[in-house]
Design goal:
single chain, 227 residues, alpha/beta, Rossmann fold, seven-stranded mixed β-sheet, two-stranded antiparallel sheet, 8 helices, 25% strand
């Protein structure tokens, strides 16, 4: 179970790290709505039982199948940088445990989230449903392709590192929308990138800060292996 003291301590750590990295991110504080969403979502509920005692430590943790639940600071920062509004429709690539989707569900109208690992997609869907978050839809599939049936999206968040931005995701981002994606090689030399699409469809990029994410799997290499 989550104690108020554990959550308060974690939020204090996150606020301190946000302040320390403001030179990279341009954000000195988190907005009240992001902090409220963060405080309302029990991180321990998205972890295997043996790891739940570590749920409110500010670090990433394994969730099986070679995947992780991201460091709370990174989750909070990425959520902040999306600048979502209550009426937004958001696409997440890399459902993982479902934790990021649960946070977004408290901030936006609808979340569509894709996970390539079938057992993780199934467990996340069940967990989110059990939490009563009816505005999240989980699908097992290749994130490189996005979710064209529900495009365009006001925001897209990718929680695994790719060598380049999948073209389908750029196409599915609404003009005026924002995308966050870690770019770089596997397990090192990655940078979190913020992409903005203007009303004419032009895309600009901004490097936020160095990060380390698990790789985004699937894409052309995976399709080629099946042919």
């Amino acid at each position: 179970m989550m104690s108020k003291e554990e959550m308060r301590f974690l939020l204090d750590e996150i606020r301190a790290e946000v302040s320390e990295t403001r030179g990279h991110t341009g954000r000195a504080v988190l907005s009240p709505r992001v902090l409220e969403a963060f405080a309302a979502v029990p991180r321990h509920a998205f972890l295997p039982g043996a790891l739940r005692p570590a749920a409110y430590i500010n670090r990433p943790l394994p969730i099986g199948h070679g995947q992780t639940i991201s460091q709370p600071y990174i989750v909070a920062l990425m959520t902040e940088l999306l600048e979502t509004k209550a009426e937004d429709v958001v696409l997440e690539i890399g459902t993982g445990s479902g934790y990021q989707a649960a946070l977004l569900a408290r901030l936006v109208c609808q979340v569509y989230t894709l996970e390539i690992v079938a057992p993780l997609a199934r467990r996340a869907s069940e967990r989110l449903r059990d939490m009563g978050l009816g505005n999240v839809e989980v699908r097992q599939g290749d994130g490189h392709e996005g979710w064209p049936e529900h495009a365009p999206f006001d925001a897209i968040i990718v929680t695994a590192a790719a060598p380049e931005v999948p073209p389908a995701l750029i196409e599915q981002l609404k003009p005026g929308g924002r995308m966050l994606i870690p770019l770089g090689p596997r397990y090192g030399g990655q940078e979190l990138q913020l992409l903005r699409k203007d009303t004419d469809g032009r895309v600009s990029r901004e490097t936020v800060l160095p990060v380390v994410f698990v790789p985004l799997t699937g894409g052309a290499a995976a399709r080629g292996a099946l042919e």
